[in-house]
Please model this.
Amino acid sequence: MSAAKTTLNIAMIGQGFMGRAHSNAFHQVGHFFDSPFELRRKVICGRNRESLQAMASRWGWDETATDWQAVVERKDIDVVDVATPNNLHAPVALAAAKAGKILLCEKPLAMSVEEAERMAEAARKVPNVVWFNYRRVPAIALAKRLMEEGRLGQVYHYRAVYLQSWGPERAGVWRFKRSEAGSGAMGDLLSHSIDLALMLNGEISELSAMLQTFAPPTRDVDDAVLLLARFSNGSIGSFEATRYAIGRKNYNQFEIHGSKGMLRFNLEDLNRLEFYDCGDQQAVQGGHQVLVTGPGHPYVDRYWPPGHIIGYEHTFTSTLADFLEALAKKQPFHANFDDALQVQRVLEAVESSSADGRWVRLGKGTTRGRSEE
Ligand code: NAI
Ligand code: SOE
Model:
């Protein structure tokens, strides 16, 4: 008979989009992965009692609550998952870390570098995760593997865009308020592109950026951001993130050119990675459209047979699965609060460059993805 698994009681703060994505991951991880822990969806905490109850029933949460402070101090809670607007990440995470809880937190980690530093320091005492879920897209994990194997050679160009089309008519929600979001397209979208760039291509050494707000007074955050960057490996990068790319839905794309080849990925075609290999016979050179559904591709053997595509929600399940495995083996996990602090440093440099109209140097080591160590 196999030994009983340790149960982890989870409290999730937030009942919105990510509340659903995380609930699904907590529910599914044990179905697809050999989870070393039994996860119990113990308390879901939000602000709207009625919809909370409905959500708790739908997603299998035992209890509901509306006071996050009381929840994070409960002795019977092992894990606190922060899925609230950005301004609450720090207070909830700091209180939970103080109470010794395992910490899961949404991106962007914080409202400022100063806040992110305090959070990262507190989180070093407990196991922790930041939900930079795109790292676990199989095609992106494959891109990482190919780069680590040197299949791109020396990297020259890193180019990323993150395009959405909220446009002018979607004001009012927390995402458009500096007091709750901290920033606009920058923290919401660019943070993902920067996290991936640091993971795939290493440290950014300097940057020059421009932030733009198109919508007048109702909105006090950036709608769009453009960024030029130099990486420590000698490559140069360009990034664009916008909520005004009318016609684009969730167009999270990167393209990397090296001396031996090229990689291209777009989230709207999540199961595919394009790989151009200069080593191919000249007669057949061209981008390989790799359907990253196995065999031999990251994560996919946990889901369906080759060719049976997976979706957005699986990235959260795979993130959680990797974290639980690392937790059981007492191994480091990425992306963690320290990784997200590096992203936050880049975001702060973007703001300062945009305000001063200058290039900003980032101190050596400040933006190196921890996973590169
Ligand atoms: P949402 O607006 O759908 O949900 C936010 C939730 O927080 C709501 O349920 C609200 O009731 C709850 N909340 C607000 N104040 C609260 C309080 N005082 N106590 C308890 N609950 C409170 O927002 P969404 O899209 O779920 O975003 C949440 C976080 O997740 C943000 O930090 C966002 O940047 C991040 N996010 C990350 C994504 C990813 O790809 N990793 C995707 C979407 C969002
Ligand atoms: C915004 O529309 C959003 O949901 C971001 O908050 C997420 O981080 C991004 O993954 C998808 O877009």
